[in-house]
Amino acid sequence: MRLGEPAERDAALQGELAHGFLGRGFGQPSRPHVILFVLSREGYRVRGAVNGQEALEEMDRSPADLVVLDVMMPVMDGWDLCRELRRISPELPIIMITAKHETSQKVKGFDLGTDDYLVKPFDPPELVARIKAVLRRYRIAADKRIVLGSLKLDRLQGTASVDGVNVHLPPKEFELLYQLASYPGQIFLRDQLIETVWGFDHEGDERTVDVHIKRLRERFAAYTHLFRIVTIRGLGYRLEMESHD
Questions:
Q1: Which of 22, 28, 79, 168 could form a disulfide with 67 if both were Cys (CB 3.0 to 4.6 A apart)?
Q2: Is 14 a domain residue?
Q3: Maximum distance among all Cα pairs of the chain, rounded to whole angstroms
Q4: Which residues contact 86 (CB under 8 A, 6 or more apart)?
Q5: What angle do CA 19, 23, 28 make, to 5 degrees?
Q6: What is the CATH number of the domain that holds 56?
Q7: At what angle do helices 52-61 and 78-88 cross, to 10 degrees?
C-alpha cells in the first residue's frame, strides 16, 4: 500500500505519540484513517485535524510530542503551520510531507524548521521509521552528553573523545560537531549552523561553515569507519553513523 497519492482534497493529520505525538496531512479522505491505524498499531496515541488552523487550536489545548504535517492543507497550509509551530514551540519535532521533489522545496521546509521531509507517495513503514529516528534525535539533544558508538561529546566539559582517545577541539568546532551529533542523520542548512553556532549577528558567510567542516573531517579522518560528516548537495551537512551489522 502507498500513502499520500495526489487527491482532490488534502487533510491534516495530527497525532499523539506515546506521551503525546502530533502529526497531519495526507491525500484522500480515507488516507488519514490509514495513517491513524498504522501509527496506533505501533503504539502511538494519535489525534487528527482537518486543516492547519484546527491543528494549532488542538496543540494549544493539548501539546503533542511530534508533528507530521502536509504542505497542501486548507485554511492554513503546511508552510505557515510549520512556521507558526516553530515560533511557539522551538523544540517540537516536525516532519513535513509533500508531493514536491524539488530541492528548493526541501530547502524551504528546512528553513522553516522541519526536521525531516518525506515525499509522497510513501509506504507506512517509512513514515514510522522516520518518526522513530526524529524522536531519537531529540532524546539525544535533550542530554548534555552525547554517546554515538565510540564518539563521546560532553557539552558541560567541552570535551570530545573517540575510542577513548581525547580529541582537542577549538570551541566553534566543538559546537559545530555537537550540533550535528545531537541530531544524527538530520540535514542542517549552512545558515542554520551559522545561526546556532556563531549567532545571528555573525558577519561572515556560509564559507565559515565549510572551513570548519573541513577541519573536523581532517581531525577525525582516522574514524570515518565510525562516523562521517556528509555534504548534502544544495542543502548543507549531516552526521552519519556507520553501521556494522
A1: 22
A2: no
A3: 58
A4: 92, 94, 112, 113
A5: 140
A6: 3.40.50.2300
A7: 20
Structural domain contains residue 167: yes
153-215-241 Cα angle (round to 5): 50
Say if pTM beats, i.e. exceeds, 0.70.
Answer: no
Of 73, 72, 117, 77, which Cα lies nearest the Cα of 93?
Answer: 117
**Whole domain around residue 150: which residue ranges?**
143-241
The beta-carbon contacts of 114-117 under 8 Å, at least 24 apart in sequence, are: 114/82, 115/183, 115/186, 116/186
Most confident of 29-38, 51-60, 116-125, 232-241: 232-241
Rounded to the nearest 5°, which phi and psi values hold at 212?
-70, -35
The answer to whether the CB of 63 falls within 8 A of the CB of 86 is no
Query: Are 48 and 121 part of one and the same domain?
Result: yes
187 part of a folded domain? yes
